[in-house]
Amino acid sequence: MIYRGEIIISIIISLIMTFTGFALAALSNKIKPGPLFGFRISYATVSRRVWSKANKLAGIAIGIVGLVTLPFGIIFGVGAQAVIMIISLTVALIFVTERTKNLAEIEIMSRPLSTKSIPQKILKIKPLRPYLKILILLLLIISLVTSIWSFLTLLNEGLPTLSFFMISLWSLPAYLGYLSLKRPEAYSLPWIRPGDDMLLAVVTPSCLSLMSIGTSLAIVKLKILGLYITLISVAILVITAMVVLIRSKLRANIS
């Protein structure tokens, strides 16, 4: 049974996401590249044209996710809405990132040879060291195992919505881990200090994997340990983001 309060919460969540997404799309031509607002991935910073297109695409995708998840919240409740929202946002992130990468490549190839080196500067981050790759991959594997374990446990206990929520948590760190392992240049933003891009490439998927592990443990069995792991990983991710933001330039020089 879905209560009235739960329906109201679902509607508010979807409306906020829908409004935010379409507002981003509408203002995509006015948002300047920088560390505070917009779809901040290196491919989008190749030029102002690509930046505007990427943010418009990201805004439309977020708005559509808000609209798509609304009926799930009204009919099945906030839990089902959260599951669909996590999966939909991950799919949207993958689509927008890959599309932006294609736009960046087209933009670079269309420029004269004398100017191609300028946008290519952000794509020259070195691959992660082998031990860092092993760390990320190990955390992703542990996160997947704990997600499957919590999924099966909760499903056996008659909690299908919560079980699917637990398995859906792995989708975001999985894709960001893929970017870190295969395409770390995605983190190479022009306004951050050299080396901070590699820091983001390691910390982001690692902390998200730890959050997934901690949440699985906290809900299924080891509540205190899981809570500590989740809180510590959130704190590390927030502190890292703040340090990178403080050390970054306030404005990016993108033509």
Give a concise summary.
By secondary structure, the protein is an all-alpha fold. Helices cover 73% and strands 0% of the residues.
The rounded Rg comes to 20 Å
Major sheet: size, sense and barrel closure? Answer: none
User: Helix and strand string, N-terminal first?
Assistant: HHHHHHHHH
Q: Return the average pLDDT rounded to an integer.
A: 84
> Any idea how many domains?
2
Number of helical stretches of at least 4 residues:
9
How much helix, percentage-wise, in residues?
over 70%
- The shape is globular
In what range is the share of β-strand residues? under 5%
Spans where pLDDT lies below 50 across 5 or more residues = 114-118
Any overview of this molecule?
- The protein is an all-alpha fold.
- The protein has two domains: 1-119, no CATH class; 125-255, no CATH class.
- Helix content is 73%, strand content 0%.
- Helix 2 packs antiparallel against helix 3, helix 5 runs antiparallel to helix 7 and helix 8 (196-220) runs antiparallel to helix 9.
- Mean pLDDT is 84; it is low at 114-118.
Secondary structure: elements and pairs:
Layout lengths: L3 H23 L21 H29 L1 H33 L6 H4 L9 H27 L3 H9 L2 H12 L13 H25 L2 H25 L8
Helix pairs in contact: 1-2, 2-3, 3-6, 5-6, 5-7, 5-8, 7-8, 8-9
Name some characteristics of this structure.
mainly alpha; 255 residues; 0% strand; globular
